[in-house]
């Protein structure tokens, strides 16, 4: 069985993380690389010399790293006499050494993957695909337990379920203890004479060591080697659509979370282990996931739309498969989103012509159009239908989980605390969404679960709950039914008002990411797990205080001083918070209108009777200057009042 050389891979990973020049993606020979470097400006040469010297210092001078057998005399000389901007030619032996390591790693990895694929082909299809896909995700949390004469490899539990690989009739010389918990680095495997041979390299150190150094160190590494008969997969699928919905996610947040879960699920267990309904929605999940990522990067100013973007192979595969792509047509056109569908159709046509640049451009246009429609609250029908399909395709999963079974208990504690107060204030609804109507205004409060699916500490699961609130102007149809954005008032939530323009709605997050404060509820995960630690206290009262602030603000009252102080001290400021500059721009037309009006009044009065005869100092230029000053003063006063009023209210959007 081929055993991968961890330290040799670590050397490659170390230098690849420092610069693209020292990565395998360089694509040049050692001589060509040095020649290119020598042609660079002095400043760039000096910067690269510093990078190389730093990497060499790590592999030669760090006492926690022993790679002496991998170094040659040239590398040791560079460690003793570092390279400078004027001695780039001395790097030729370094690149020859590094590229030889990269070549050897490539050969060893290819052999290892070929052998592992051969092993997977002899296993049952879904089990083999899980072994194959999971081996490509390094750094994943993993655990091994003994079950009689079996060893069970358990992947980290996710919202979509738990998956394990059972190795029966194990024969091993491993003398360590179980359970074995750590992070997967590599899997070597071999099949011969009806037996399966495995070697797992696992990092069992849970610390803050630099990841670039970790693979080069010797401490806390385990190599678990054994042989067994035919392995098989055990999979318990959980209803992650229900979990997301119960946690208060809806609209963009629900779809984004759902897409992330199913895309990762497919990357771990393979498409064969997905249900038929999941397979149908997987292409849409890939498209929406990449669209949200692109729109977010663009919003942060990190994306240049003129450049080719990284579009994942899975997205391109979706565009390439006309049958899969045609499923989008019904989804988009039935909800009136022909424009969005046409952008994807153009991307498909560009990809069929092998025009990657145009494909990237069209997907970028789709992403930005989707974000634009979100902000204008114009994709509600599409999102409602898509959310329904996503929940429906996971409703068949009813697996139980010691981890996620704790959520109903935490939600029950939160509901028991907050619901009586909401009901006393006139709010109706079911956890986590509540609403009340006052006149032609709809008022909403939603409890949002901030953390879902984190691993327990000392046998306890900790959930964080936050609050969002909104006010929406309602309309009535011919039957007198109150509507919010075209939907019955009873079906809308605070989260639905997030993307509505501030002219018709107000939205805020209280105790969310901007304030850094949330209600915390602790739940025991496993029966019988007790520690000597003090029992942590639940903190649910903070949301009750936020409910009172939100209700008062909906009635026009200013927020209390303690809330304003907390918000002022917030370490994250919302992007849409009103600033003095934006307030000035908002009231500038009013100031201009007042200036023109006062100037017109002066001209009319001067025509009817000569103003200078009564007020000699009030000449035309002076009158215009006074009108302009009054206009600017009004703009300033209105802006100051708006800022002060904004600071005393809870609304952020």
User: DSSP strand (E) fraction?
Assistant: 15-25%
How many beta strands in the DSSP annotation?
17
Question: What structural category arises from helix and sheet content?
Answer: alpha+beta
Low-confidence stretches: 303-309, 528-533
In short:
The chain is α+β, with helices and mostly antiparallel strands. It contains 21 helices and 17 strands. The two termini are 61 Å apart.
Plain-language structure description:
This protein is α+β, with helices and mostly antiparallel strands and 653 residues long. 49% of the residues lie in helices and 17% in strands. It contains 21 helices and 17 strands. The two termini are 61 Å apart.
Lay out the secondary structure:
Blueprint: H1 6-18, H2 30-38, H3 42-61, H4 73-80, H5 92-121, H6 125-135, E1 141-147, E2 150-155, E3 161-167, E4 171-172, E5 180-192, E6 195-203, H7 211-214, E7 221-228, E8 232-237, H8 240-246, H9 251-269, H10 276-299, H11 313-320, H12 322-333, H13 338-352, H14 356-375, H15 380-394, H16 406-424, E9 428-430, E10 433-438, E11 441-449, E12 460-473, E13 475-476, E14 482-484, E15 487-488, E16 505-510, E17 519-524, H17 541-554, H18 561-568, H19 580-608, H20 611-614, H21 620-647
Helix pairs in contact: 1-3, 1-5, 2-5, 3-4, 5-6, 8-9, 8-15, 9-10, 9-15, 10-14, 10-15, 12-13, 13-14, 16-17, 19-21
